[in-house]
Amino acid sequence: MVLFAGQGDALRIMRLLWGAADEGVKPGPKPGLTSDDVVEAAIVVADEEGMGALSMRAVAARLGRTAMSLYTYVPGKDELVDLMYDRVMGWLPTSYELDAGWRAAIEAWAADTRRCYLRHPWVLQVSQARPVLGPGGLTAMNTLVGILRTTGLAAPELRAVVTLLTDFVRGAAQTVADARQAARSTGESDADWWAARSAALAELAPDFAERFADVVWIERSAAPVAESAPYLETQVDAMFATALGVLLDGVEARIGE
Amino acid sequence: MVLFAGQGDALRIMRLLWGAADEGVKPGPKPGLTSDDVVEAAIVVADEEGMGALSMRAVAARLGRTAMSLYTYVPGKDELVDLMYDRVMGWLPTSYELDAGWRAAIEAWAADTRRCYLRHPWVLQVSQARPVLGPGGLTAMNTLVGILRTTGLAAPELRAVVTLLTDFVRGAAQTVADARQAARSTGESDADWWAARSAALAELAPDFAERFADVVWIERSAAPVAESAPYLETQVDAMFATALGVLLDGVEARIGE
DNA sequence: TCGATCACTTTACAGCATAAAGAGTCAGGG
DNA sequence: CCCTGACTCTTTATGCTGTAAAGTGATCGA
Fold first, then answer.
1. B168-227, pLDDT tens digit by residue?
2. Chain C nucleotides covered by protein, CB below 7 Å
3. Packing angle between helix A213-222 and helix B135-149, nearest 10 degrees?
4. Option in B4, B156, B247 nearest A242 (CB)
């Protein structure tokens, strides 16, 4: 992996992100692919087999080429992932109806964004620090800020709300994605997993009910279905909506000031 | 890595998590280490060099042994990470003063939890789906729920608030941890990184100011220091406090019902 | 036609988790 | 007292990973 990206590298990846066209004719054989082809193939691999299966060899195999040939189109794997990220973020809706108010718009934004993360779970593994500064990611950010600006909140508060929203949506999606991934890769359903663990717990911590009384209480009282796995998806969807509601109540309270 | 963990494996890792003592005397040489020694050494490695540098070889080297010898004490790397996680979560405070109200208690909880994540950033890479069911993690969860129960909120809402809080604190800490990690491993400061990117942006997207007007507005208006790197840490700390305030306003609104 | 340039392949390296097999060490049973 | 089985720990090996380095052959401008 790349350990130090100098300034020249910064320009190169930015050029790729922004689709800066190559200038004139050059000697040598014509490229058989474009960097877009590589990005597209990599997204297919990551969607189908997960980020863990995304290797230069796997992407190259899908394109009928060797791993090393990809380095003609893309500086390295890190940069390829950045390009994949920006591409997917570019597929998100870029504007929301505001006639029903900012709250409804944010709810729609959250649902779309969450759906996108669940369709491409590997996106959640791209760090938010030193963000990918491509057109897709910037447009997505612009869309969210655009909705929130209509609340009339001051910029510092609004910025906090932006990170609150994105961190929450990412975290919630991450949990669902991880659960699905675990079920797929271990072949053990959530229910089986839970059954084995709770049996072991009962044996190893007989004082469980008293020692973790509050946890037991919330699990018993909040789960609509007794004996269910903790991450039953319909239950998780409802919880997402509730949590988002609490968050937006907080925003509303700040508007009242 | 382990692909399928059967029921026997579940019992074994749970026994390790709960510190179930081995029974009687056995033939063969005495073990030179305990699984706790391995976990401790692994935490030191991960704290000092990051999760990416956590390998069985590195842990073994610190203990003066070969990588394979660790498999005597721990089923595999995945399970070792679970043990590390539960150990660190067990270091968190287990009760909070409630005389000043639940809100102050949650603020203290959030500060402690965030500090713990920043001291051991690799903890954030442990998935929340199929959580580690050890005493440390369960106690931490119990502490949080215990504070929130004093709000009198109904269990389903309270559960949503729990995930909202944990997802937010984790996400916020993750961003800071990633930024620090990037600075360390690339040798490029945030300021340098930002300078190189914004120069490239100006060249590649001359219409930036109009095309991403809302993003530009919030960056200009919210940052107290002009031309500063986006993730200046004091700025991020303030944003964390503001966002937590908004979140807790939402909880308060729900209590009023 | 020549030399430069580029696409692409082959080979190689260091590092990873861990399976498999072997070496040495210690206990209880004969 | 020795043997057998169990146990710790090491050595070796397998199949992955990203990518550096060098080589092959095609294609262009001069």
1. 999 999 999 999 999 999 888 888 899 999 999 999 999 999 999 999 999 888 765 555
2. 3-11, 15-21, 24-28
3. 70
4. B156
Query: Which two tokens mark A32?
Result: 């058989």
Query: Which letter does DSSP use for residue B32 in this model?
Result: S
| Six-digit token string for A156 | 């510092």
Q: Does domain B32-89 fall into CATH 3.40.50.10810?
A: no
CA distance from start to end of chain B: 49
| Residue indicated by tokens 């490029």 | B188
CATH number for the segment(s) A7-19+31-89: 1.10.10.60
Gap between the Cα atoms of B150 and B138, Å rounded? 19
Choice between A225 and A77, residue whose per-residue pLDDT is larger: A77
In degrees and rounded to multiples of 5, residue A129 shows phi and psi of: -75, 145
Ranges of chain B whose pLDDT falls below 50: 1-4
Is the pLDDT confidence value at A137 over 90? yes
Backbone angles phi, psi at B99, to 5 degrees: -65, -35
In this structure, what DSSP letter does residue A224 have? Answer: S
Q: Is the CB of A181 under 7 A from strand D?
A: no
Q: pLDDT by residue (tens digit) across A82-135? A: 999 999 999 999 999 999 999 999 999 999 999 999 999 999 999 999 999 999
Kindly state the DSSP code that residue B20 receives in the 8-state scheme.
Answer: P
Chain B residue numbers touching A172 (CB-CB < 8 A): 163, 167
Tell me if the domain spanning B102-126+134-189+229-256 has CATH number 3.40.190.10.
Answer: no
CA distance B108 to chain A (A): 18
Domain ranges across chain A: 7-19+31-89, 102-190+231-256
8 Å CB contact between B136 and B19: no
d(CA A138, CA A153): 21
Q: Span A67-92, mean pLDDT?
A: 97
Give the integer Cα–Cα distance in Å for B145 and A218: 8
The two most distant CA atoms of chain B are separated, in Å, by 76
Among the residues of A90-154, which ranges form H helices?
Answer: 102-119, 135-149
Q: What is the CATH number of domain A102-190+231-256?
A: 1.10.357.10
A225 pLDDT higher than 70: no
